[in-house]
Specification:
This protein is α+β, with helices and mostly antiparallel strands and about 350 residues long. The chain has one domain. The chain has an eight-stranded antiparallel beta sheet, with helices on both faces. A hairpin with a 3-residue loop joins strand 8 and strand 9. The termini are close together.
């Protein structure tokens, strides 16, 4: 929040695509229920030091058209918020039981369950699409979102610590690439619908929904994705066979930049800052917000990193802890989902 950064998007076509042109289509939704190409949010922890101590439900919001962090007028457990507005489309698709839409919800910690799956990827998210387009949300909140039959809600367990989420709208053809990423990430899907019309294009998602055996996955794979509005994103994913710290061993070296990394530091063996390779990864200890408040990294369950150098700035958001035991789990490194090749194009991370 005090480190300047932007995203991984050489394209600047986003503002040329008016949201009203695809307002009726499946897409990320802002807090007015309007279609947006992408949004990002940062839920603040319950306890912060400064002028504005939070409730554990307040969040900062930014999207393709509002490219500065703003404190949301809603709380994260309200249906009017960006997550609630976006998820409403998925819940409506569930209720309609339409064969024209497909969805999947996954989390390594499932609502109404006390167990955590160590056989699946440490990855959290949900997606909804039809044959035209859809959205993909990646977040850091355990036990979220609720099953569609339960309606929208936010878990009490997700209030104490900081959390992040990112939503991106994609045209249909991009979901075939996302399906390939699912092969390596091996997410724990707990609610899904994949009608026959989608199965040939999304074979890995079909197997995950059916709990069938997946084919062999590559150790890791980097995908270049393009949003419906023309923004380019990078997505890093590793399988459980890639036994290493993904930040140090791959992401920083691939992006050719030092990274400042924020991660969950309550459990497991915390990894120290690492300067062993050409490009280094440094742990963040203190986060400052636009609300003149600060909080320590130990109060943050979100996972993000930003580049340290001034040119070719990158911002990465996702769901992978920087901890030793994470090396043995297949992970969707969604926090690297966004990284911008041209500094200043979106200015989305200028407050980090």
């Amino acid at each position: 929040m005090t480190v300047g950064s932007a995203w991984c998007s050489p394209a600047v076509l986003l503002l040329l695509s008016s949201p009203s042109l695809w307002a009726a289509q499946i897409s990320c939704r802002n807090e007015d229920g309007e279609a947006v190409d992408w949004f990002a949010l940062y839920k603040l922890p319950k306890y912060t030091r400064g002028e504005d101590a939070g409730l554990g439900l307040q969040y900062l919001y930014m999207d393709a058209l509002v490219q500065d962090w703003q404190l949301s007028k809603y709380l994260i457990n309200m249906t009017q918020g960006a997550l609630g507005q976006t998820l409403r489309q998925l819940y409506e698709a569930y209720e309609s039981k339409s064969n024209n839409t497909a969805y999947a919800i996954y989390n390594d910690e499932v609502p109404h369950s006390d167990s955590t799956s160590w056989k699946r990827g440490h990855t959290k998210g949900f997606l909804l699409l039809d044959k035209s387009q859809g959205f993909w949300v990646i977040h850091s909140v355990p036990l979220f979102p609720p099953f569609p039959e339960d309606g929208y809600g936010y878990p009490v367990s997700g209030q104490s610590y900081g959390q992040t989420a990112i939503c991106i709208t994609f045209k249909y053809d991009q979901f075939t690439e996302i399906d390939q990423q699912m092969l390596s990430s091996n997410p724990q899907i707990y609610s899904c619908s994949l009608p026959s019309a989608f199965q040939a294009d999304l074979p890995n998602l079909q197997k995950l929904c059916a709990r069938s055996r997946l084919p062999s996955a590559p150790l890791h794979h980097l995908s270049k994705l393009q949003s419906a509005g023309g923004e380019a994103f990078l997505h890093f994913v590793k399988s459980h066979s890639f036994v290493d710290d993904i930040y140090v061993a791959w992401v920083a070296q691939e992006l050719k930049t030092d990274l400042l990394a924020e991660s969950w530091q309550h459990s497991g063996r915390k990894l120290p800052s690492n300067c062993s390779l050409q490009y280094h990864v440094y742990n963040i200890n203190l986060i400052g917000t636009p609300l003149n408040s600060t909080f320590h990294s130990i109060e943050d369950h979100s996972k993000w990193s930003v580049s340290k150098k001034n040119e070719d700035q990158w911002t990465c958001i996702g769901d992978l802890n920087r901890a030793a035991e994470q090396a043995w789990r297949s992970e969707l490194h969604a926090r690297d989902l966004t990284a911008q090749e041209r500094a200043g194009t979106l200015h989305w991370g200028q407050l980090w």
